[in-house]
Amino acid sequence: xxxxxxxxxWSDKRYKQKLVEQRKHMWHKDTVDKLADWMGLKSGMTGxxxxxxxxxxxxxxxxxxxxxxHYIGIDISAKLLRDSSMASRDWASGGDAGFVNADxxxxxxxxxxxxxxxxxxxxxxxxxxxxxxxxxxxxxKPSGLVICIEPDNLSSExxxxxxxxxxxxxxxxxxxFKITLVSNKGRIKxxxxxxxxxxxxxxxxxxxxxxxxxxxxxxxxxxxxxxYEGEVQQYRLKMAKRNFLxxxxxxxxxxxxxxxxxxxxxxxxxxDRYVEISDRLRPIAKxxxxxxxxxxCGSNDFYTIKGKKP
Length: 310
Ligand SMILES: C[S@@+](CC[C@H](N)C(=O)[O-])C[C@H]1O[C@@H](n2cnc3c(N)ncnc32)[C@H](O)[C@@H]1O
What we know:
The protein is an alpha/beta fold and 310 residues long. The chain folds into two domains: 175 residues, Rossmann fold (3-Layer(aba) Sandwich); 99 residues. The protein contains eleven helices and ten strands. The strands form two sheets. The chain has a seven-stranded mixed sheet with strand order 3-2-1-4-5-10-7, sandwiched between helices. It has a three-stranded antiparallel sheet with strand order 6-9-8. Helix 3 links the parallel strand 1 and strand 2. Helix 7 packs across helix 11. It is globular. The chain starts with 12 loop residues before the first helix and ends with a strand. The relative contact order is 0.15. The chain binds S-adenosylmethionine. The site of S-adenosylmethionine has 21 residues, from helix 1 and helix 3. The site of S-adenosylmethionine (SAM) has 21 residues, from helix 1 and helix 3.
């Protein structure tokens, strides 16, 4: 087990809500089709999803390997596993899906035993992502695949977005960037993982002896545009409203961010200024929501990295 336990309890209502919401509309179907082909998924494979949460990778990729296949979801949270196991009854037809409560650092599976070992947004939360990747590699059969789907939220945060809210000054934008950079340092220091892990996986795979390493990006663009037609736009609008207007949600994540910023050596005055600017934008956002005038567009760096075990 990890010595420095990751403080996130994913079965907590707020995190679980975030998990469900962020997965909705996360991928375009044609991108998943292309990815499954690029990965070489085939019916009858045995796929392990480590840090499976609610089984998102299971139900996303099941159509490509599930016929006669086996899915094993592994997670440290027994509570989440109960939900994912129940949900799998709806998607895991034609093969079998099982769930195991275990730690990513000590997977209860034999060496060289699975065709596919995968994870999504797991490494980014770990203190020792390389060790976790080594475990995924250990259980994979020779010629089998290790797949990691991980973001580089840091670079994504540094990319300017276009939205209907007042343009921030260059100094304000630089302050936002500083908050992001320093908070990630603090996050690593606090043992909460690394928001930038997505760009580090190809090298880790190479160090671990995987071959035929290749990487792709998710091509989903997050935009919200009046009159918000259709399910995806309605969903994006709901998320934007939640981010700006839900007081509890806003305070909860600001508190976490502040801890990380200070742990990274940040100046409390900088953080207060950042909150001041964010708070200034909230009533303007509310007015735009009320009038149906809010819009925004941006994207996230989200990598899928594959490596073959020689
Ligand atoms: C951000 S969630 C991702 C869940 C899922 N892969 C998805 O993309 O929807 C991270 C998951 O990793 C699990 N996790 C965190 N640390 C772990 C560990 N040491 N061993 C196994 N699972 C872990 C958490 O319980 C949580 O379900």
